[in-house]
Design a protein that fits this description.
mainly alpha
Amino acid sequence: MKLIWEFVLKHVGEVVGGSIGLIFAIFVLIFGFWRTLFIFLCIALGVFIGGRYFEKKKLIEFLDKHLPW
């Protein structure tokens, strides 16, 4: 177990990339390529919007701008 953990710590980028590839492959097998691409594009868009607008300071600005109080 210790040997596996040391390998993971030494090769974090490869492990994360391989995990994302595995998840993408499973989604392609279940949903098909285009639906999987759509799902991943929606996830990327959500991550982008979340990172851009929902930071602590910007959340209050976003709510003040878009919600009538």
